[in-house]
Amino acid sequence: MAEEKTQKSSADEIVDELAEDLGVEDEEETSDAEEAEDEAEEASDPEEGDDEEAEAEEAEEEDDDSASDAMAGLGVFDVKKGTKRKKKKKKKEKKKKTPKEKPEGVDEIFNLSGGAADDDLSDYLDLDDIDENAPKNPVNKLLVLVIIGLIVVVAGVLHTTTDVFDDLILLMQGNYQEEMARRVAEEERRHLEEQMAGMPRFGNLAISGRPHHSLIRLNGEVQYGETSDGYWREVRVTSPAALIQDLSIDITHEIEVEAPGHEPRTFTITPDMWVPRGADYYHEISANLTAAGTDAFDEFTARMDGDPDDVYLGTVTFNTVPEGAQIVVNSRVALDEDGEELRTPITLETYFVYDEEEDELLERDFRVDMPPNRGNRIDLVIPDDEDMPKYVMALNRSMWTCEFKDEAERRRIPSRAPILQHCNYVYEVNVDFPALKTYIEEQQAERERIEQQRRDAMGGSAPAMEADE
Predict the structure, then answer these.
(1) How far apart are CA 68 and CA 245, in angstroms?
(2) Residues with Cβ < 8 Å from 256, sequence gap 6 or more?
(3) Nearest alpha carbon to residue 287 among 306, 311, 268
């Protein structure tokens, strides 16, 4: 037994001596020694240590291979090939450390980390550690696309719902202030239209046609207008047109036009017939009347085209409410033959006026053939009652009514005599002063109400309306 132990111990010693001669050492001891040696070399001179380390590794690999082959041939024990090479490769893969230069001067003062953090980070992550072939994260691309999409959508919404982009363009072009002023004016105009749309709407009605001085009735009522001297007269067809102002366009109106010796005409005005004109609305009627017959047509034509040298007279009847109105013809008070004032009701073929120069009464009559558009001016006034309005009219030749004489009288007229000699010309004046006063008050109240509505809509003052002409 002692001999066997001695032989076994001798064999182990022989193997160790042989391995030591061949340079084969215990793996763990060699590894620890080599690591300590590498760290010392790297600390002293990294670049030179790397070159020497590479040469030593090559020599050791050759020795390891030869030793392994030799030991394998002896059959004493097996030496794994590549063990030493594997260890060296792992060490070779370590990143070379590049010492950081210490900051000098001001940099050194403000370098709080002292450079240690940079060394640690260089060991932790370097560009060589990033794998260019690493797969990209698709979630990142999706998030980028979503953000871009949101930006496009928001920009589109701003462009379609606001004027941000247009304002920026105008600002760059230098037209921003002008555009803002235009927008303010447009907004004010739109606001006025909205205000007017929510209020009662009114329009002006123009009536033209023939014959001139035809009487106009609105919804069955004679219309009046105020003159410059404070008198009130009937609204009649004139040239170029008679004007009735501030009619409500939201209701239907009936317009009647009549003249002696002609067929009257009625016009219906519906809300859809008005057209906008400024802040109001406008409509025009052309009322050309037709003669009531052949004789009426011939008589009217001859009257209007008659010789100024021919004299035709007429009879005028005056009716008023209340009675007792004073009659003024062509600015002269109508008197009887005794110099007393004539009062309504009365029918006159002739009347008298007082001539102050001659200090006498002069007889006057009502001529039918007055120059066109001149006529006889007739004023009717209620004396001693200042509250009653004053009435005025111009009795033109187209306003007379021809009452044809009976057959017996017409047979006595020469055959070649003008048709005008076959007529008795008459005219009737009817004035209801209390009704006229009520009409005036209603018109003035309506006008004030409309003006106030316009001022409210315009946020200020509205121009005063003119009287009907």
Answers:
(1) 129
(2) 216, 217, 220, 264, 265, 266, 267
(3) 268
Q: Which residues make Cβ contacts (< 8 Å) with residue 101, sequence separation at least 6?
A: none
Give the CA count within 13 Å in the CB-facing half-sphere of 254.
8
Q: Report the amino acid identity of residue 240.
A: P
* Closest to 289 measured CA to CA, from 233, 400, 208, 218: 208
CA distances (Å), origin 390, targets 243, 385, 467: 21, 10, 16
Place of tokens 């589109």: 156
Phi, psi values for residue 413, rounded to 5°: -85, 135
Sheet with 232-234, edge to edge strand ranges: 224-226, 232-234, 391-395, 376-381, 326-329, 332-333
How many angstroms separate the CA atoms of 225 and 246, rounded?
Answer: 13
Top-ranked range on mean pLDDT: pick from 8-22, 128-142, 156-170, 245-259: 245-259
Neighbours of 269 (CB within 10 A): 19
Neighbours of 379 (CB within 10 A): 20
> Which tens digits make up the pLDDT trace of 284-295?
999 999 999 999
Give the tens place of pLDDT for each residue, 30-89: 555 555 555 555 555 545 445 555 555 555 555 555 444 444 444 444 444 444 444 444
Alpha-carbon separation of residue 80 from 77, 93, 129, 153, 430 (angstroms): 10, 22, 31, 68, 147
Task: Confirm if 194 and 273 have CB atoms less than 8 A apart.
Answer: no
Question: Is 341's pLDDT higher than 80?
Answer: yes
Structure tokens belonging to residue 336 = 């009887």
Q: Quick check: 79 and 66 in contact, CB under 8 A?
A: no
- DSSP line for 288-353: E-EESSHHHHHHHHHHHT--TT---EEEEEEEEESS--EEEETTEE-B-TTSPBPBSSEEESEEEE
